Amino acid sequence: MTDPLLQASDLSAHYTTTDGFLERLLGIGDTVRAVDGVDLELSAGETLGLVGESGCGKTTLAQTLVGLREPTSGSVTYRDKPLAAWSRAALRTNVQYLFQDPLASLNPQQPVTDIVSEPLAIHDIVPADRRDDRVATLLERVGLDPLTANRYPHAFSGGQRQRIALARALAVEPELLVCDEPVSALDASEQARICNLLADLQDEFGLSYLVVSHDLSVVEHVADRIAVMYLGEIVDIGPSDALFEDAAHPYTEALLSAIPEPDPCWTGERIVLEGDVPSPIDPPAGCRFHTRCPVVIPPDEFDLEPAAFRSMLTLRKRLEVGEDDWLESLVPRDGRHGDTATGTTEAIRDRFDIPSPLADPEAEAILERALEAIVAGNVGGASEQLGAAFETPCETIEPELQAEGDHRVACHRFDDDRAGDRRSRPSE
Ligand SMILES: Nc1ncnc2c1ncn2[C@@H]1O[C@H](COP(=O)(O)OP(=O)(O)OP(=O)(O)O)[C@@H](O)[C@H]1O
């Protein structure tokens, strides 16, 4: 890779949420760890895709990377110079941000010609008497009829509004364009047309792009490299073809499997992740993905299939958080069903898809005792027994990004010291 245009080191951006006036006054509240210790670089002329589920921190990261939001800690440099050392005007002529909702980012009171010519005037890029010509050229270049320049944003379709925002961004002749969910509000054919337009503009102007999307299929066609984000962290980053052909991180694999028309290289099954994304206020210890990971590493001492261990870990986590609605229906206090302890333990196994019996007899004996404790009403004791016997490195040790060539993956399955079922696919 050439020298990075944009580089982030150990970048964090947190929010503090406060419920009421008193908390605000006292400056106390919960810390939302929206971006947590991100290292990232983007080269000149490159398109980097940033993907992940809603709420994982993509927008916060993108905005912090280009100085629209102050980092909590860490640093960002643009052309080797800290962002803080750039004047606002100089930074804005180099870096432009295309917002998720073009209607919200375009002034409804301004005709398109004013919207696009405003940056030309602010940054004194084109003399006043040539601005109309320049606006017409920019509109044509993004596929809009210059004769519509006197209309207002509401008169245009979603795709046309995104083109207006693009023309405005291009007016300052930027080097880097950050596109935040540029096509998420558009229909499939317009999505493809905007993606093609972005690619053409890159060829013509040598632009670099950071393309933010919750949809891997959008970045698949435009990105040279893809960074996958989960709960504030980058968990997988590498060339797009490497990610698609040999998805390494189980989270990337789950995202890939969710694409409606997967890449022809994809041979696995659809992976449905268990549970919700945990809160960034209190992210899980160890690997943040371990609470949902289909191939969480079983403890060395037992011979357990990843799927069986996943099921037991899900049971244990549910017992730990004390969510017992499901438990009451399986272990009724009035003895309506599950007449025998055995019937009830089997019902719990069924509920969590735990094989009966487990392949490892010693693990089976421990699980049996824990299930009996649940039936006897000792939920805390059962969760302690399961926790003491079946601890996974994924819940205690935070994985570092490990390099495999130019592909880096933060997963203990790629850590030689802890690799359990290395490279086994979640869908296998
Ligand atoms: N102003 C704010 N105050 C408090 N929390 C916030 C604020 N903005 C975002 N968050 C929280 O920070 C986390 C990351 O949000 P962010 O918008 O960066 O994620 P995202 O991946 O871009 O999501 P989306 O695709 O839905 O926009 C979320 O939990 C979100 O609720």
From TrEMBL:
GO molecular function: ATP binding; ATP hydrolysis activity
PROSITE patterns to which the protein is assigned, alphabetical: ABC_TRANSPORTER_1, ABC_TRANSPORTER_2
Gene3D superfamilies: P-loop containing nucleotide triphosphate hydrolases
Domain ABC transporter: 6-256
Superkingdom in the source lineage: Archaea
Keyword Transport: yes
GO biological process, one term: transmembrane transport
SMART domains: AAA (SM00382)
Alphabetically ordered keywords of this record: ATP-binding, Nucleotide-binding, Transport
InterPro entries: AAA+_ATPase, ABC_transp_ATP-bind, ABC_transporter-like_ATP-bd, ABC_transporter-like_CS, Oligopep_ABC_C, P-loop_NTPase
NCBIfam families, per the entry: oligo_HPY
Family of this protein: Belongs to the ABC transporter superfamily.
Record-linked PANTHER family: D,D-DIPEPTIDE TRANSPORT ATP-BINDING PROTEIN DDPF-RELATED, TRANSPORT ATP-BINDING PROTEIN
Protein name: ATP-binding cassette domain-containing protein
UniProt organism field: Salinadaptatus halalkaliphilus
